[in-house]
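::Amino acid chain::
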Amino acid sequence: MTPHSSVVWLPVQGTRSEHERAVQQILAEKLGKLLGCPFIGDYSTSLPSGGRYYFLPDDTLVGDVSALGIDSNQDLFGGVVEHAFVATKAISHPLISEQSRHPDGWSESFALQVDQVTLPGFTAFDLDDAHSAGQRLLRDGPLRLKPVLARAGRGQQSINDLAELETALAALDAQTVREHGLVLEEELRQPYTYSVGQITVAGVTLSYYGSQHLTRDNHGHSVYGGSELIMVRGDYLALMALTMPRAARLALQQARIYELAAFEAYPGLFASRRNYDVACGESRTGKQRCGVLEQSWRVGGASPAEIFALEAFVDDPALRQLHASTFEHYGDIPPPRGAICLYQGHDDELGLLSKYVKVERT
């Protein structure tokens, strides 16, 4: 296969924040080093013809991207799906009924296949369906209302009764729900969130498991605060060979089932970066629950740990395992000892924010 001539950043979301651009530029430069080619900036149609680019999109790509020269997971850091909803948490749950509104390409069989590895919940593409789904879930306790496009846990609401549900649904835009969907899911008490994932870049595959932690942003909201990951050279089988806590092994098994079902149900999907959030906790009725919350086939919060770890594995072919972490700090908080600063500044929307990455031999 012809080597890539350069790495380019591909904007999908539109406007990027300063901190996202700063971190993604560092990651793009690292990817260029690993691939043996330079990072030349944003992709545009004015770039020289004949170049074979390796892409770093800021979101999952949708549809036919062959015109860009993206033919497989070797051509990008992230993923490609046939339909936009496949890239969101909407796919994780079934519809409330066979007659429920849903987008073209929707696979009800996928939701049924992963029913035992996800939390009780429903996806709705209509506010009336969302109301019916919420009513059913509230019989067993509180639920969590989750907009499917939000990231880092933002925009989610805890719903305790029918009145709260109706108030929350009334505040939503019906067209947005019809276009993108809405998730209603059983709420867990003090959930512990595991991360399971795999990346393949420059012919090297790394797999990992670990945990996420939450923090308070400058507005007092509970949001993603970083990840701590145990990474190994190789596929999920190499990861399964490690000694790990029982709950972590269950999370890994559930993520693998979810991933296999997704690739079967949505054959247009391919990805070089796959990440799954798996929550374990207790329902309000006292039942122990563990289930996949969502997938990420795009550059994400854990990607600095993934790519900096990949660099360490490439530099040392004998390396088999290491520990990699990311940190997101709001306000004036000292950096973690031994961490590399990726960004430190004032975001117009989020306020003072710092991002760090740390890689350690185990």
